[in-house]
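Regression check, nicotinamide-adenine-dinucleotide case 296:
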Amino acid sequence: LDDGAELVSVLHDRMRDLLVGVVGGTEGTTAGVIRLRSLAARGLLSYPIVAIKDAVTNQLFESRHGTGQSAMDGIVRATNVLLAGMPIVVAGYGWIGKGIAMRARGLGAQVTVCEVAPVAALEACMDGFRVLPMKDAATEGQVFITATGSACVIGAEHFAVMRDNALVANAGHYDVEIDVAALARSAVARRPVRELVEEFELADGRRIQLFAGGRIVNLAAGEGHPAAIMDMSFAHQCLSVAFLVARAGHLDATVLSVPKEIDQQVAALKLKSLGVRIDELTEEQKRYLATWSDGA
Ligand SMILES: NC(=O)c1ccc[n+]([C@@H]2O[C@H](COP(=O)([O-])OP(=O)(O)OC[C@H]3O[C@@H](n4cnc5c(N)ncnc54)[C@H](O)[C@@H]3O)[C@@H](O)[C@H]2O)c1
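Current build output:
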């Protein structure tokens, strides 16, 4: 069971002798899946791995609601920032960015989204967010949160135009989304201003606040996802491991999506735990949905 392809990287790199007999694995986060797909594309992946983050129930709930809530919680706890009316820039409108943008807006912030993918940018637009390239958003935001899975999303050209006291934080898995080295290079002085916030003073007197050294905000400052979200993630891990074991030796060494039945099963179990009941299709409805001519 991996999160960020840390274990897989070590196994494939330094401890290859332990690869013998591994039936399969699971990966919990987008950043890890990106690495695994790259390994698989080169024909180097040694065993099948189920991408938990591809599960619909994972994206909708852990990524969107878990990270959305815990990232904002982490920022507020560590900075005491007032979010009402605050111009916040969210980089990336995947499930993580969507959750953060949604919660920030719910707390009264004025949210701008930066994207590189047209569909995601259009979705942000139609969800009612302002969409701007980062170099324009950089001049307007006061709080910046990266959630792209990419690197150097906020860099020297952005620090150069940011407002005084802008706060930059990262919710992506790795601490590479904010170019901290570039910030350090452009600073004439730096000092800690809170337990998890370091202030960088630039030559023109403006100050940039860096959150947790660019490390993942909700783990650095918050408590991670609520247990009521992680229960579904662990259910996915557990059911996916059972799936892999039942098919041991019959699956290709590639990155697999979580089977739809597991997604449905996890959602059904969660509904049961919440005491939420739903309707079932009647036999007549099933028959109707299976025909191509009725009602035409
Ligand atoms: N904080 C947490 O608890 C937590 C939880 C799960 C995942 N993550 C991490 O968050 C990151 C995002 O995850 P996701 O599932 O939303 O990924 P995703 O791939 O679904 O979405 C990322 C979005 O960022 C956009 N993007 C990429 N580069 C960009 C750039 N330079 N500028 C603007 N937008 C850019 C992409 O077009 C995409 O729409 C990953 O690193 C993931 O591992 C964090």
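Comparison notes: Residues 56-79 form the longest helix (24 residues). The chain has a mean pLDDT of 95. No diff flagged against the previous build.
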